[in-house]
Specification:
heterodimer, A: alpha/beta, Rossmann fold, 3 domains, 19 helices, globular, B: alpha/beta, 4 domains, 4-stranded parallel sheet, 12% strand
């Protein structure tokens, strides 16, 4: 770690005009988290245009779950029926079989009209009603809305009373389903007794999360959620089990925090490091990659790629600069990353494409399309990286294998570009 | 009691405006929108429906707390305009500023502001808090004509034999195939295609629509407003054998090409439509009277399919629900109840109906996509519902799914057919039942699981991963074990048949 690198959000000198900000609708992050919970039946307070779009992406990425909403058109808004309509939708949700939780997702129009929390029930037929306020005009990116949703759930459901499970670790972040298994198995070898992952599908996990021995954020944007755990007195582990040095440091940090047997911890950490190093030595990456998603996890991915041998001059993301990402940011800057852009726009990404002539792009769908129009291999960060393991040496192998394979297919991208060039 | 919506089927006037206007390449829209309204309508949804990476000719004003809190949106729209202008993105383009539900909510009227932007810039109030996408598309088309087309058309007169098609915008299910077939029918009947609007058109040539002697309005849901403004006779595009025949004849009558229309119909019966005749005569037709059908789609599709599958082929129509839903029609609450009670053999619909079928565990009902919402690519021109080719394609789809159902009924030797119970839904994100929690995976077990998943195609991997974990853990619990061993994973894989 080079500690002397000054941290500042460097923008290139000729800053392109920011016309097309890149994020899913921010509110989607909350829907993704809330609809997947077993026994949760969400109610969305919003206008029909918003409802149509958010229901669409929820049914694509969230859950096969029916979604209820009050009719909120001009007539209802003029008549001041936001609360009445929302209460009616809550009543319908409460009748769903197995309903234990009714998240009320309040969006731009309802937030502008006003939806006072005290006018909503807190429980209906035994189901908890939890208000989640995620107006897109105030949240700015969908990763941050995941945090807002999870924090709202924990505030209502978390049960900090009772004995602390000192050797239980809470992993924080939506990850590929195999990742928590790998992390859990590794931590158990060090003496951890159990791990929980949030956001997840289980309401009981939300209740017992407050009594864990440590919180380990795998993603940097869970600000409100972390604040709640601080209030509960749960210590937080910095960093994440990403790459060679990151995983090594993280495992040891967990060991120190939970006061695990240092010998066992060192053994596991050394073994992880050895495996990761061997893997990178056997199959190093080369080439220049732009990491330009909008998931809020881009900096960590960039770090992994650089550690594996790639050059990553430019990283951009939808979230604001987060303290938890700072160590990774410093690490990247000390290894040649020139620009790290927060709250990015399409124009900034395109400027980077012009400037750095990358061999491979991980980006949003509009940006990937532009890269492919130039014959450059490109993949939609959200769909392709979230769907494979990432953490520890095992995840590292899976993700790097995928990147290497894609970069090896560059002639496909050239061929298609040439085929359509005279179209 | 306030009205409650379940799984909204129809979008709003704002979506109508963007999806209609942005079909015209020489037009650029500034949507007065928070980032979400921009992302959903211009990227997230068209990615998975129209299968376009993003709509390039729309830019948001990006409403934030500041605008909502009292500043209003005019400065943001102006800044967006200046950015677009300076980037050269407005050259040769008509600029239109479109309101959204949120900008309407904070009372942002930009009629005056637009007069200070690029000369000729117009403001379109999308009435997004009241209007649905169908009324919205109809109004946008009329508005475009009044604002731009009519003036271009002053000197233009209808020409003999020329036919326009009014219809496809972004977000119109299956429009590529239906449009392709309707063009073929028009030309077969002796017409000459004049213009398709708004897809395949430019705004600065909208006046050319006036050259059409006849207009075909592709959908019942919208487009007749523009057709009426054009003042020439118009007819709706057809679905089914008789409706298509009537359509071709009517075009012949309108254009004075009756003989050619009749020749085309005869030739189609001997060629394209032979498939329907053969399937009717063959064993497949015998299934039709016992194959019941539920229809959920636009009125254009539902009425057409009801006539074709119900009246002409004799399949029992279990229920119909049209979009936009009439006041006395079935809403999604009623459709869901109906599908939970008894799902018909075939359900034509959107992802909503697909979810209701999943909830009901209706494994023996076949779902055929027939409407948005729902992620589905319909860009091939060979999958029409409309016209003669549509009649063939739909019945072919049904017959093939009947074959599929038959195949699934055939016995498979039980040695290969052991489906381990999936167990309770996953908890804790990693597929564990929350109260079980104490199951540890040995590294060898995890490795084995990963290896098995690696063999699967990419897409099913995630769900298979979860399912497998649940199966393994269910097995462990059944055996009273607290640690997942490689042997246990092997046993679960063998039982599932995925380890082969």
């Amino acid at each position: 770690m080079t500690e002397s690198i000054p941290v500042n959000v460097v923008q290139s000198d000729a800053k392109p005009c920011q016309l097309h900000p890149q994020s899913m609708c921010p509110a989607f992050g909350s829907l993704r988290v809330l609809t997947r919970i077993e026994g949760a039946h969400p109610v969305m307070a919003t206008d029909t245009g918003c409802l149509y779009g958010l229901t669409f992406v929820t049914h694509f990425y969230g859950a096969r779950k029916s979604i209820l909403a009050p009719q909120l058109g001009t007539a209802e808004l003029m008549a001041g029926e936001v609360v009445e309509g929302t209460r009616a939708a809550i009543e319908v949700a409460a009748k769903e079989p197995g309903c234990e939780l009714i998240p009320v997702i309040s969006l731009c129009v309802a937030e502008t009209a006003g939806l006072p929390e005290e006018m909503l029930p807190t429980q209906v037929n035994g189901a908890e009603v939890v208000l989640v306020r995620v107006p897109a005009y105030a949240i700015h990116s969908h990763p941050e809305a995941k945090d807002v949703a999870l924090a709202a759930l924990l505030r209502r459901l978390g049960q900090p009373e009772g004995e602390r499970e000192a050797k239980r670790v809470l992993l924080l972040g939506e990850v590929f389903p195999a990742d928590p298994l790998i992390i859990d198995a590794t931590l158990r070898r060090m003496g951890v007794e159990e791990t929980i992952i949030l956001p997840g599908r289980s309401i009981p996990d939300l209740r017992r999360a407050a009594r864990v021995g440590a919180l380990a954020p795998l993603h940097p944007f869970y600000k409100e959620t972390m604040a709640i755990f601080r209030e509960w007195g749960v210590p937080i582990v910095g960093g994440a089990p990403v790459g060679i040095s990151g995983s090594y440091a993280w495992l040891r940090a967990i060991g120190r925090l939970l006061k695990l047997d240092p010998k066992r911890v060192d053994e596991v950490a050394e073994q992880e490091r050895a495996q990761a190093e061997a893997m990178v030595q056997a199959q190093p990456l080369s080439g220049r990659i732009l990491v330009t998603g909008y998931e809020g996890t881009e900096v960590a991915y960039a770090r992994l790629l650089v550690e594996a041998g790639a050059e990553v001059p430019y990283v951009s993301t939808s979230i604001a600069q987060e303290p938890l990402a700072l160590p990774d940011e410093m690490w990247l800057r000390s290894r040649g990353t020139k620009e790290i852009v927060y709250r990015k726009s399409l124009e900034e990404d395109v400027a980077a494409l012009d400037k750095y002539a990358p061999d491979f792009v991980l980006g949003t769908t509009p940006f990937c399309a532009i890269a492919k129009e130039r014959g450059i291999p490109a993949m939609y960060f959200t769909n392709q990286l979230a769907s494979r393991p990432f953490f520890l040496s095992g995840g590292m192998a899976a993700t790097l294998g995928f990147i290497r394979q894609t970069m090896g297919r560059h002639e496909r991208y050239t061929w298609m570009e040439e085929f359509f060039a005279d179209g | 009691m306030a009205k409650v919506i379940r799984d909204l089927s129809d979008s709003s006037g704002y979506w109508a405006a963007i999806w209609t206007m942005c079909a015209l390449p020489d037009l650029h829209v500034i949507c007065d929108a928070p980032i979400g309204c921009f992302n959903l309508v211009a990227t997230a949804v068209p990615d998975y429906t129209d299968a376009v990476p993003h709509l390039e000719n729309v830019t948001p004003s990006v409403i934030t707390e500041q605008e909502v809190g009292g500043a209003g949106t005019a400065p943001a729209v102006r800044a967006t305009y200046e950015g677009l202008r300076d980037a050269g993105l407005l050259e040769g383009k008509q600029l239109i500023v479109v309101s959204t539900a949120e900008s309407e909510m904070i009372g942002s009227d930009l009629s005056d502001l637009v007069t200070t932007l690029k000369p000729g810039t117009a403001f379109y109030y999308s009435d997004s808090l009241s209007e649905d996408e169908w009324a919205g598309r109809d109004r946008v088309l009329r508005w475009l004509w009044e604002q731009f087309g009519a003036a271009q058309a002053v000197e233009i007169r209808p020409e003999r034999g020329r036919v326009n098609i009014i219809g496809p915008t972004y977000g119109c299910f299956n429009s590529a195939a239906d449009l392709h077939e309707v063009k073929r029918l028009i030309e077969g009947a002796g017409g000459r295609l004049n213009r398709v609007f708004p897809m395949e058109s430019r705004l600065d040539e909208m006046g050319e629509l006036a050259r059409g002697e006849l207009n075909v309005v592709l959908y019942h849901e919208f487009g007749h407003g523009l057709a009426q403004a054009l003042g020439q006779p118009w007819l709706h595009a057809p679905i089914g054998l008789q409706a298509t025949t009537d359509f071709v004849r009517e075009i012949g009558r309108q254009l004075g090409t009756e003989a050619q229309a009749e020749r085309f119909i005869r030739h189609e019966k001997q060629s394209t439509l032979q498939a329907v005749w053969d399937l009717w005569k063959g064993p497949q037709g015998d299934w039709f009277p016992t194959t019941d059908i539920g229809l959920v789609a636009t009125r254009s599709y539902v009425d057409g399919l009801q006539r074709y599958l119900g009246d002409e082929l004799g399949m029992p129509i279990a229920f119909t629900a049209t979009r936009p839903a009439p006041h006395d029609g079935m809403d999604n609450e009623a459709i869901r109840r109906r599908l939970h009670e008894k799902a018909p053999a075939f359900v034509f619909g959107s992802i909503n109906e697909k979810i209701y079928l999943s909830e009901a565990g209706a494994r023996h009902s076949a779902f055929i996509p027939a409407a948005f919402p729902g992620p589905i690519v319909r860009r091939a021109v060979g999958t029409p519902f409309m016209g003669y080719r549509g009649a063939v394609w739909i019945v072919q789809e049904i017959v093939n799914r009947l074959y599929e159902a038959l195949y699934n009924f055939l016995p498979l030797d039980s040695a290969y057919n052991k489906q381990a119970a999936a167990g309770p839904p996953a908890a804790s994100g990693n597929g564990r039942k929350a109260d079980a929690g104490s199951l540890a995976w040995q590294p060898e077990a995890t490795a084995l699981l990963d290896a098995a998943l690696d063999k699967l195609p990419f897409l099913p991997r995630i769900s298979a991963s979860r399912e497998l974990q649940m199966q393994v853990e269910a097995l462990a619990r059944a055996e009273g074990l607290s640690t997942i061993t490689a042997e246990l994973v092997e046993a679960a894989l063998a039982a599932r048949g995925a380890g082969r």
